Amino acid sequence: SQAFVIPLGVTAPPPIPDSVAWQRVKTMGIPDHCVRVLFLSRLAPKKGLDRLIEALTTLHQDGLEFHLILAGGNPQDEAYEKTVSDRIGQSPLADCTTFTGFVTGEDKAALLQTANLFVLPSDYENFGIAVAEAMLAGLPVVVSRGVYIWPEIETSQSGWVCERSVESLMAVLRTVLTQTGERKRRGRNAQEYAQNHYSWGAIANQTLDIYRRILARRGDR
Prior knowledge:
Oligomer: single chain
Number of strands: 6
Shape: globular
Order of helices and strands: HEHEHEHEHEHEHHH
Radius of gyration: 18 Å
Largest sheet: 6 strands, parallel
């Protein structure tokens, strides 16, 4: 017998006018003059935040300009959420980081529309819904090999893949932060790939195709 695996489907937040999006992110304290790095996920130890903070701290000290957006929370582990906040508040990243808390609706849409890059360096993700949402919104993504759609991201050149180490993540981010044209190209690739593979229309077509193949095999018996 053969197993068929259909990925989860995602729906991008409805787009909002750019003027509205920029007004919302400015209200959150997010600037428009540097690369905006978006982390949009639950704040939890397995998400690789320790590596991300360490890597970005070094890059900031090396003179690279960016703004980190941490969008998410963790009601089940508020102590860890506070640990992350305190660590950044006491680091060189304090002046170039925004904590938004959990976001939905137009706030989420605004962040996805105005960010330049999505990053999720997790220890483990069996799929990564947030990654697929970011791709569908046209963002290039940086993920670790613990996010198990990394082969598709690598093959489609929808972003960059790093190892689960500070050194690897830092090397990838150093490249990404300095290559505007390549970010845009891979963002376009990400959106096209997500539309063709992760949108609900694409998932429906994949499901129908699998049923056709199953029925065709039954007919051959």
